[in-house]
UniProtKB/TrEMBL annotation:
Pfam families: DUF2460. This is TIGR02217 family protein. NCBIfam families: chp_TIGR02217 (TIGR02217). It comes from Plastorhodobacter daqingensis. Residues 4-209 form the DUF2460 domain.
Length: 210
């Protein structure tokens, strides 16, 4: 599968519905207890792109985007308006939002990630598609300059340093990011009369691994 580095129109994804999905395998034991396991290390997100359509112009835009991706063939970027920043929604993005690791004096590449913590548990989500120009990095609490101290691979979500961070130095970053997705259907059914009456088409979108 090819991946097109293009974002689904953000004004259309704004009204979409969706979020993370987990897969849990549950076995009920004879004593009434359960064994629960998951084959997935990471959640997978699903969305409905049809919910953001507000006009026939939007429908035309959706169909053009769908055709250019050849249905399910090519992946693309998706802005999840409920979760697209390294910082909480009420706070500005800073270079110290998320910890990427600790320097050892030799390692010069760090993968972007976002932590989801609740109580004693936390989940680290890999961020593969940062938005170009939004990644801000700090080493040991000191802000670095992109193009001088580091570069960002927006295709894979990697921060590459010119000089490896010193031993024990915390490497942190703040950023905006997209979700890599594809259409989860090869058909779009639209009726102009039904759409004008308030019936929007169902256009499922599914997160992909990159």
């Amino acid at each position: 599968m090819a991946f097109h580095e293009i974002r689904f129109p953000a004004n259309l994804s704004f009204g979409s519905v969706g979020g993370p999905e987990r897969r849990t395998e549950i076995v009920a034991l004879s004593n009434g207890h359960e064994e629960r396991n998951t084959p997935w290390a990471h959640s997978r997100r699903r969305y409905d792109a049809g919910m953001g359509l507000r006009s026939l112009d939007d429908v035309e835009t959706l169909i053009a985007f769908f055709e250019a991706r050849q249905g399910q063939i090519h992946g693309f970027r998706w802005k999840d308006w409920a979760d697209y920043r390294s910082a909480p929604a009420s706070k500005p993005i800073t270079p110290e939002d998320q910890e990427l690791g600790v320097g050892d004096g030799q390692r010069d590449s760090f993968a972007l990630r976002k932590a989801y913590a609740s109580g004693p548990a936390a989940y680290l989500r890999p961020i593969a598609k940062p938005v170009e120009g939004t990644v801000r990095v700090a080493v040991g609490g000191l802000p670095m300059r992109e193009g001088v101290h580091y570069s960002v691979d927006t295709l894979r979500g990697l921060v590459q340093f010119v000089d490896p961070p010193a031993l024990g130095a915390r490497v942190t970053a703040g950023f905006e990011f997209d979700v890599p997705v594809r259409f989860d259907t090869d058909r779009i059914h639209v009726s102009v009369a039904s759409f004008q009456a308030g019936d929007v088409p169902n256009v499922p979108v599914l997160e992909v691994r990159t």
